[in-house]
Amino acid sequence: MKTVEINTDYIALGQFLKLTDCISSGGQAKAFLQEAVIRVNGEAENRRGRKLVDGDKIEVAGFGEFRIARKA
Q: What is the number of domains present in the chain?
């Protein structure tokens, strides 16, 4: 599982996908979310605005598992 560190209280799922190189631009997020299997804390998710916070676990089919960690 890869750890993704953020400096803010949360990161939107669309921004997370770009940060982790699952997509190359923010404009691809909507289409990617319609096609890919993404789970946040074990539940299917397809909203690009979903707020991911410290401790959330994200699974992206074909890209792996990630955990959000807030930098201290």
A: 1
Name the residue range of residue 18's domain.
Answer: 2-70
> Whole-model pTM above 0.85?
yes
Q: Residues 14-63: pLDDT tens digits? A: 999 999 999 998 888 889 999 999 999 999 999 999 999 999 999 999 99
Residue 17 host element (H or E): helix 13-19
Return d(Cα 66, Cα 61) in angstroms, integer.
11
Phi-psi region of 60 (alpha: psi -120 to 50; beta: other; left: phi over 0): beta
Residue carrying the six token digits 């669309």: 14
